[in-house]
Structure formats: C-alpha cells, structure tokens
From TrEMBL, chain A:
Any one GO biological process: U1 snRNA 3'-end processing
Alphabetized UniProt keyword annotations: Cytoplasm, Exosome
Predominant place of localization: cytoplasm
UniProt protein name: Ribosomal RNA-processing protein 42
Organism: Chlorella sorokiniana
UniProt cross-references to PANTHER family, sorted A to Z: EXOSOME COMPLEX COMPONENT RRP42, EXOSOME COMPLEX EXONUCLEASE RIBOSOMAL RNA PROCESSING PROTEIN
GO MF entry, a single one: mRNA 3'-UTR AU-rich region binding
Cleavable signal peptide: none
Superkingdom of the source species: Eukaryota
TrEMBL record, chain B:
Name under which the protein is recorded: Exosome complex component RRP41-like protein isoform B
Top-level taxonomy: Eukaryota, Viridiplantae, Chlorophyta, core chlorophytes, Trebouxiophyceae
InterPro entries: ExoRNase_PH_dom1, ExoRNase_PH_dom2, ExoRNase_PH_dom2_sf, PNPase/RNase_PH_dom_sf, Ribosomal_Su5_D2-typ_SF, RNase_PH
Major place of residence: cytoplasm
Domain of life: Eukaryota
Location relative to the cell: Cytoplasm; Nucleus, Nucleolus
Cellular component, GO, one term: nucleolus
Region (Disordered): 242-262
Record organism: Chlorella sorokiniana (Freshwater green alga)
GO molecular function, one term: RNA binding
Residue ranges with Acidic residues bias: 251-262
C-alpha cells in the first residue's frame, strides 16, 4: 500500500502542483489515469470484469441465483452488492481489518443503484430480473474484490461494477404455466449461453470523486494525493450527465457554492469516464465476437 | 457419474496421469514486495508477500528466527455457489495453517531474526486443488520477493476413482467421494515431503500408489516453476543490461560534450 505517511513538504509540493494544473504524474486537475477493463476474467461467474485505474486494481464478479423478490417490489428482481478488501492489497486487511472500508464502499455502490419504489428507476431496471411475479426472481450478487489500493477506490469500483453488469449473461428462463390456473407456475432454466439475456446498462451511473486540494477541485486522486485533501464529494452521474447520487465525505466542510462547482466538475469528468469505459468495453466485445 | 470413460479419458478429456494446464505470472501486484498469480486448470490463485520487515507485534518477536504470517481468503465469486464469507471459517483457518507450515519449512527463517514475512493468498477461482495452487502461488510470490529459501516448494494432489489413480483432481472429481491426497515436496532434497493430507478412506496399497502419483505431479509442477523463475530472472537481467547500456550511452554523450567544449 502506498505509504500512509506524508511529509509537510510533499503536501506543499502536491498542492502547488495542483494550483499550476500540473500534478505529480503530469495530469491536469480533471484528467483520469489510464483505465483498462478486461471482461470475463472469472469463468464461472455470470459476468465479471477486472478494472485497473492507474495502480488501483479491482475485480468484480456477478452471480445470478434464483431467489424470491422483495415483498415491497414483487415484480422485480434484486441486486445485492458486496465488497471485500483482499489481504493481498495490504497487511492492514488481515482478518477483519478491511470490514469498515468494504462496508462503506458496498453501501456507496448500493446507493448509486437505488431503484426507487417502483424498482425501475435505478441504473438497472430490476423488473427485467423478475421470473414469476411475487414468487421467483433473479437475485444478482455483485461482489467486488480490491486487489490493489492506488487511490480513488469508489470510482474504480463503480466502473468495474458497470463493466461486470455489462458482461453478465443471465440464463434464459421459461415460465411454464400448469394446466390448472391455480397451479404454481414452473420455470425452466435454459443453460444455452447463446440464449442468455444481457442486461441493459445504458443508465448505470459511474461514481466520480471530486476532492479539494488547496483551493482547487481535483478528480481521480492517487493514494498520495488523497493524503493532501480533506474534503471530497462523490457524485454518481449517468451517461446522459444526470446526477443520480451525492455524498460529501471527509472531515472538512465546504462552502455550498464550492460544492456545486465540484458537482459540475464531476459531471464533466463523468462524461470522460463513461467514454473511456465505453471504448474499453466495445474493444473487448469486438474481441469476444471475433473469437466466438 | 462416470469419472473415467472406457477409453481412459476423464471428464475434462485428460488422461489419468495428466496434470491440468499450469500458468504462472510474477509481479502482478504493484504494492506487494512480491506477488504471483498461479493457475492450475480453472483454479486461479493470487499470492502477495509483504516483507521481510520488522516485526509488528513485539511480544511475538523471536531473536533467532523470522515469523511467517499467513492468510487464506476465497472470493465470493470463486466457487460455483456464491460464498458469503471468504475468511474466518474453519476450512480457511486449516488451510492457512497448512500453508504456513509448508512455508516455514521452506524459508530460511534463521537468516532473518526479529523479522516478519506476511504471505497472503487470495483464491479467485476454485476448481479443485485449491490448497495446492495456494502453496505454489505462495512459493512463487516469495521467490519474486527474493526471500531466501531452501528449495522449490511444489504441491499437487491426486485421487482414486473407479479403480484408477487420477492426478490433479478438479472440483467434480474431488466431490466424487474417493480419497484426495494433497502433497507438497522439496524436489532437490530427494522429494522430501513437506505437506501430506488425505481425505476419505483408502486401502493402504492404493494410498501408496496415489501418493507416488501425487509426488510425481509435484515434481512436474516444480519443474514448471523452475522454468518460470528462470525466464523471469532472464527478463530482469535483460532489463538491467538494457538499463546499463542506456546509462553508459548517456555517459558517453556527456563525455562527448566535454570534448567539444574544448
């Protein structure tokens, strides 16, 4: 893990660099690091993706299992998020060490996908996961594993979650209604991968964390830069630029006008992030088509 | 279920004494001192080494040797059925202890008193032979971290189904109810056994046959790891040579400048 210690001199250097719009690695304030996404890295998962954003390395695996729907949304499936901090990322995650961080990250992911009371208003339309209304549905477990902490975990996680959902191939289910209308409908799961249904991820938002270093708003902080910032706003923005969620983090307060400015920065940066991910996914899927 | 067809082929098309495809990659994690990804067929394991470093807990300090700390974790998506908790369950604790035991016999702990080496193993995909893949990955990560060791540590498992000894069982074969013998060896010390574990009942003659098959599998794995380490070292040596050449060329340019000055 990058050193958790930072000297006053280094903080000054980084803050000055940000004010000149030239960070340690040469990036400008609103630039992202190089994003690389690989789909289908876990063969037995319904969908999976490994995303590297600079040094931050995350794998997300989706597993679709048959379950029962939420009583408040009987005609919808469910999305369950989980995050694990792998001990390979740092000795600090030994035993239960990573629980606090993983809980926070999972909750943040979950909130960005909030489906509303109808179940259809979130990034993923949950009604697409329903099998038999009120009785059976797909429960899609989205599990993330952090392999390397290089700063900006929230953003990398949201990108990986979107990529894994884009890769998910939900088996086709045929609902067979018995002869007697009062009979329970039966369902058959078709194992054929060609028949599998893909999820519509067009509305899935990506999270962009904007932080204040000195007097400026910066995007995609490295682990070292995170030690120089004490206020950040996490904004979930979808591909059309609409804000789907907002969280202010860290200990320092921000002026409301500054906060609004940070949200605008996030919207601009999110457009770039969506484009970078879309390019990466398109490349992957083209490769998959040519191989298959 | 038929585990061995009449033609002598297993469920995945292998012959009874055939190992699955092995793959190893070193230096896959940026923050760890040494890391490795090891694959045996569909079983994929990532190992990271942090250390040798000063001991964290003074009460555990040993003035004669290094402390080896280990942890084994399985990702929720690693198995066919989703797992809720990846560490802390009894199986994980047992495997952690087995890995640590093997590593303590392999690492030259007397060379690093008052220190600690952390070895973490993360299973990404589990398809049988997980503990063997973990031991192999841990060894490769330690080699990548340049931790001094006595010998190569190679591990493999074998079983017995339908009157045939089978090498390197996958998950389906492992669940077949036959014996499962996991072995780890030091190949250059006359294949001395460092780990030996067996599940399920087996007659003693069959056990000998299965264990010998497992040891042969270990030797093959050991040979593969040695090749990988050699290639890795050659790459590092080539990179260093290229770096030295560049530095020498830059030095020459500097010298040339000095001549023109006069």
């Amino acid at each position: 893990m990058a050193s958790p210690l930072i000297s006053a001199g280094e903080v000054q250097w980084i803050t000055a660099g940000v004010s000149f719009n030239c960070r340690n690695d040469g990036r400008q304030r609103e630039d992202f690091r190089e994003l690389s996404a690989q789909l289908g890295v876990i063969a037995q998962a319904t969908g999976s993706a490994r995303v590297q954003l600079g040094e931050t390395d995350v794998i997300v695996g989706c597993k679709a299992e048959i379950g029962s729907p939420d009583p408040e949304r009987p005609d919808c499936g469910r999305l369950v998020f989980g995050v694990e901090c792998s001990p390979v990322a740092s000795p600090a995650f030994r035993g239960r060490g990573g629980d606090e961080l993983s809980g926070e990250l999972a909750r943040a992911l979950e909130r960005s996908f909030y489906p509303g009371p109808s179940g259809r208003a979130g990034g993923v339309d949950l009604s697409a996961l329903s099998i038999v209304s009120g009785k059976t549905c797909w429960v899609l477990y989205v599990d993330a594993l952090l392999l390397n902490i290089g700063g900006n975990l929230h953003d990398a996680l949201s990108v990986a979650a979107k990529a894994a959902l884009a890769d998910a191939k939900i088996p086709k289910v045929e609902v067979v209604q018995g002869e007697d209308p009062t009979d329970e409908p039966d369902y058959e799961v078709d194992d054929d991968p060609q028949q599998a249904q893909r999820l519509d991820v067009a509305r899935v938002p990506l999270c962009v964390t904007v932080s204040q270093i000195g007097a400026h708003s910066v995007v995609d902080l490295t682990a070292q830069e995170e030690l120089c910032s004490s206020a950040s706003v996490q904004v979930a923005v979808d591909a059309s630029g609409a804000v789907c969620g907002l969280t202010k983090r860290r200990q320092k307060g921000v002026d409301p006008s500054v906060a609004l400015e940070m949200v605008e920065v996030a919207q601009r940066a999110a457009a770039k992030l969506h484009a970078a991910l879309a390019d990466s996914l398109a490349e992957q899927q083209a490769q998959q088509m040519s191989v298959g | 279920m038929e585990y061995v067809s009449p033609e002598g082929l297993r469920l995945d098309g292998r012959r009874p004494k055939e190992l699955r495809q092995l793959k190893a990659e070193l230096g896959v994690l940026a923050s760890a001192d040494g890391s490795a990804m090891f694959e045996m067929g569909n079983t994929k394991v990532l190992a990271a080494v942090f250390g040798p470093k000063p001991i964290e807990n003074r009460s555990q300090e040993d003035e004669k040797r290094c402390l080896v700390k280990c942890e084994y974790a399985m990702a929720s998506f690693s198995t066919g059925e989703r797992r809720r908790r990846g560490k802390g369950d009894r199986r994980a604790t047992e495997i952690t202890k087995a890995i640590r035991n093997c590593l303590e016999q392999t690492i030259l702990v007397e060379l690093m008193p008052r220190s600690q080496i952390d070895v973490y193993v993360q299973v990404l995909q589990a398809d049988g032979g997980t503990r063997c893949a973990c031991i192999n990955a841990a060894f490769m990560a330690l080699a990548a971290a340049a931790v001094p060791m006595r010998d190569i540590l190679a591990s493999c498992a074998a079983g017995y189904l339908e009157s045939t000894a089978l090498l390197d069982l996958n998950y389906v074969e492992d669940s077949g109810g036959g014996p499962d013998v996991a072995v780890a060896i030091h190949p250059n010390y006359q294949d001395r056994v460092v780990l030996l574990q067996q599940d399920n009942r087996v007659a003693i003659e069959t056990f000998e046959e299965v264990m010998q098959l497992a040891v042969a599998g270990c030797r093959a794995v050991g040979e593969f790891m040695r090749q990988q380490l050699l290639e890795h070292t050659q790459k590092l040596a080539a990179a260093r040579a290229a770096g030295e050449q560049q530095a020498a060329a830059a030095q020459e340019d500097d010298d040339a400048l000095d001549e023109d000055d006069y």
